[in-house]
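Good morning,

Both structures are done.
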Amino acid sequence: MSDLSAATIAELVSTAHELADAAREATLAHFRRTDLAAETKETDRFDPVTVADRLSEERMRAILARRRPQDGILGEEFGSLAGTSGLTWVLDPIDGTRGYLSGTPTWGVLISVADASGPIYGLIDQPYIRERFEGGFGRARVVGPTGEARLRCRPARPLSEAILFSTFPEVGTVEEGAAFRRVSSRARLTRYGTDCYAYGLVAAGMIDAVIEAGLQAYDVQAPIAVIQAAGGLVTDWTGGPCHAGGRVVAAANPQIHAEMLALLNG
């Protein structure tokens, strides 16, 4: 982790929450509007983007230009901006745009700060239910409709008793899907479709694991920070770093992580 002063840490935390507040306002302005249109970024599958995605990131970038102009930015909608501080803000203005379009409150805004080693602080924010998961700099908490609680991942239990999540049943390529099913077939319960919210549930101790493939850095860096702060771990499918995305395993504890990696790798 970067050698940051207490004043710098306080400034980063304050800035992150201001970003999340601005993204809440931007995303809620268009959520559950029946006239909301969506474009698709890809030709071979529906990968939607809306005016709300762009507005959310634009407002966050404007705050960073004012408060932290020396930092870099990596955002889903507007790409990379180089910085000079050694810190980079990684932004996903709406993680789960398909859910956003459908009116389900399972999408979120992802905000993290990374140094050369990877993410050091992150927020997972669900604007509609006003639930915010926070991790890093000694913080591990969730604030929501029922108040504030400490984040703590679930203790070890066998995969046969575990709850596993993924966003899509296909889980990437044919080979990746087959590897995922080796794990899923051993789990007590497998659920789909909650995007970044599932990672918050790992940190909150509600579920045991998330397995995904084909992710980008902005999909995973905030969840890494939050889950690690809560005592869990997030790696690629071989146990290595996954800050850049790709194949991701988020686990509540080392025991179930090891059990899942063994199955994913045959």
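Second structure follows.
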Amino acid sequence: MFDWNDLKYFLAVARHGSTIAAGKALGTSQSTVHRRLDELERKIGQALVTRQASGYRLTEFGTTLLPFAERIESAIADFSRRATDVEQDMKGVIRVTCPEPIIARMTQAGLIDRFHERHPHLRVEFITSDRYLDLSNGEVDIAFRSGDTDDELIGRKIADSVWAVYASKAYVERHGRPERIEDLSLHLLVGFDESLANHRAAKWLKEVAPEAKMPVRSNSVLGLVAAVKSGSGLGPLPTALGDAEPELIRVIGPIPQLARSWRLLTHPDIRRVPRIAAFFDYIVEQREAMKSILTG
């Protein structure tokens, strides 16, 4: 097989009619043009040009191959442009949304630093919110979510979302601990406020302990953790957060009704954008590390 790079010497001679002019056009010497053209003809097995007093002319065989060489040149140019576009696409910001505690755990585990080391021209920007930011409208690029998801989005499961009921050691010393879910109605509880009334944990508490007193309500998971740690009451928490707090005791659970899958989601229109694909594929690659972060 001949060297594809030698085709540019053939094309330059065909266009300029001499090896001197071809060399100038290519920024190389006349001898290099001669040598590379001779090598191409040797590999192909037939002459492509013939030398005349007025310069070089294509042979019949060379004339036949010329349009094919031009198409290869055009394809290489297209390839180079696309490669440059991809390189440019690998610069910029990737906007990621996930619960605030997950950001700290991912950062502490070194996952984000390692991604930045692998892709030094990309930067992950976290956007936190206890509401679902809209991927379809471009509020963010990628989301870590558990629970129900929009069918329009595409994603991969990366871990399980597991919840249990926790209490502080101080609360247990003062009020004892429940033995069964039915005992929750006899205890003080902490839960979400009305802004998160549709959260599965809020619905579950309302179902299993509708008459229980709830002295503290929060609009965030971190708020629930703080309330349970303060001894204000029992509360459902993700096991990844509850088990990480030395002051807390898991008193009931895991709770099957609260279990969901953690998924990494994005919109299909941008899934193959290089910078989005780079982060998406990196997290999928790091699933084992993500399991300990998301599940505990």
